[in-house]
Amino acid sequence: MFLPSNFGSFAGQYLAVGYDANGAFGVAVSANATATPVTNLGGSGFVTPVLAPLGFGSVGGEVLVTRTDGTVVAIDQNGNPSTFASVAGNPYLFGSAFAPHDFGSVGGDLLVTDAVSGNIFAVDANGNVSLFATVPLGLNQPGLRQIAFAPDGFGNYGGDLFLSISGSDAGGGTFGALVVLDGSGKEIAVLIVGNELSHFDPRGLFFPDNQTLLIASSDPIFLATPQDFQPTPEPATLLLVGSGMMGLWFKRRRS
To answer: Quick check: 218 and 199 in contact, CB under 8 A?
Structure first.
């Protein structure tokens, strides 16, 4: 993520997070490719950073990062880390996104996913954690990955939550899925992938505009439109739809 203009000496730089043998780390990368350490923590790794909006409790304007030990860490403008929230059971927290204020009972909260289950948790401005939804996992689907909210105008799904479900632990799986949830946590739509894709193991999600969704898989980047989703049949299922692909196509990542 790119840091805002008021983020101390790291303003305007790209923040990359991850983990190595020494634990979790955050590095700021400038426009001339200079990398500057921001923060380090021993133990479990960092996964996904997101900027807390101003007014979000005591951590407004700070970076919140999901961690593999079930915590959400806040990083302030000086790079100082602190634990903001802890999820019971120490899940492997992965994706994160702030819900729009009109998104049901969790509007304005931080939503985080679990990579080893179907759980999505909500974290409020005081760091209190509650279970928002449990998404049923299909065969060879170990857990959840990234989440993103669709912009207004994305077909019938503007403001809804898009969720990638992994088809493997490390990438390269076959039976991943991408579903849409409404503000009550109900699955309302699924991406149509058909039989044309021999592998589908989605991770990152990004809306460059209100008609396009980019989906990072284990190798290609897929491009989807609102027409590539169909309402989820009752009862809800995460099985891949075999009715044929409407318009999904992909771009290979540049090396």
So the answer is: yes
